[in-house]
TrEMBL record:
Phylogenetic lineage: Bacteria, Pseudomonadati, Pseudomonadota, Alphaproteobacteria, Rhodospirillales
Molecular function terms, GO-annotated: identical protein binding; L-aspartate:2-oxoglutarate aminotransferase activity; L-tyrosine-2-oxoglutarate transaminase activity; pyridoxal phosphate binding
Subunit structure: Homodimer.
Names of required cofactors: pyridoxal 5'-phosphate
Record's GO cellular component terms: cytosol
Designated name of the protein: Aromatic-amino-acid transaminase
Amino acid sequence: LFDALAPQPADTLLSLIALHRDDPRPHKLDLGVGVYRDDSGATPVMRAVKAAEARLLETQSSKSYLGPEGDIRYAELLQPIVFGRAVPADTFVGVQTPGGTGALRLAAELINAARKNAKGPGAKVWLGTPTWPNHAPIMTAAGLTVATYRYYDQATQTVLFDEMMAALQGAAAGDVVLLHGCCHNPVGADLDRSQWRAVAEVVAQRGLIPLIDLAYQGLGDGLEEDAAGARLVLDAAPDALLAYSCDKNFGLYRERVGALYAKGGTPARTELMRSNILLLARVNWSMPPDHGAALVRVILDDAALTADWRAELDGMRSRINRVRQALAAGDPWLAPLGHHRGMFSLLPLSPDQVATLRREHAVYMVGSGRANLAGLTLDTVPQFIDAVRAVR
Ligand code: PLP
Ligand code: TYF
């Protein structure tokens, strides 16, 4: 049977981890996989997470099953951070998921379940390109059809907002539009406030369903600022989905901490979404892994731990933005990076140039030209600028 399988390429982002690890050159720079790094190149466990782990070890009295929705209090405590307020239980469903990836998959399967019953066309998922390489495979694995528009021009480093709007204006009612909430991966360029307003308007007018991927809240301009665009769209759309990840802003990566929020236009529809989300969670993972979400719950349930988490997150964001400004000031070619936010920027480099950077300069970036700027420090910025100048 299994001889019939088609060979599949490895995940190019995750393969970079091993390539960098096995490079003996001491001056090597890792701008590959999207994890935060501090000034010493480490991806530390956050202080509040360590404290919450100690508390959990002391106080957790059972590891008995929860349910397909996971830790309910966790999903409730995240609401003010994501939405700016507690959202009404009769029109919002929130469940814990294995990472933002699990939330995306669950969202896609919910859409597909509805699409199959509706028996019409529709429920095409619109992706702006380039996007996170897992987006399209997750959507198609769940049975959905993907359509694309150009979001960003790599050569000129500009957001192609007119092309995006044209695509959304041409989309059919019931089509899904996947939006990066903030800190676009891989390009780094987000929509500004007036562009978010225009997207919210067209989503409402055309009856589109937003699927917002919010995986880097707090790493751009701040927790509130980074959710502002998503909130505009959520307010405008009667039905919407939001796939959330705590893996970057709580530094929990391998613990796999996410949430899916679904907004239904009516209580009846919301209840349908809820029961289907729970069924789909059950057939995929039964219930999500507990530990990481329990840590987030412990932190958000405690004012002092929350304050410390926010302070450390502020420090992480400031560090990334200092590196950005140093790059932007260090070479006119890198000036657009000053306007980008989050860990990533997509540089106008060819795969050959990226390969040369790796081979001759020990600079590890994704072949697309994506750089994780958290892999730099103010001390290594000049080394990076010199290497990039050498291959240009
Ligand atoms: N969405 C985007 C844009 C991402 O970059 C990531 C990164 O991993 C995810 C979703 C998934 O996050 P998680 O690691 O929580 O599954
Ligand atoms: O884009 C990145 O680097 C992060 C991490 O299959 C990641 O989002 C990359 C690939 C993957 C899972 C996470």
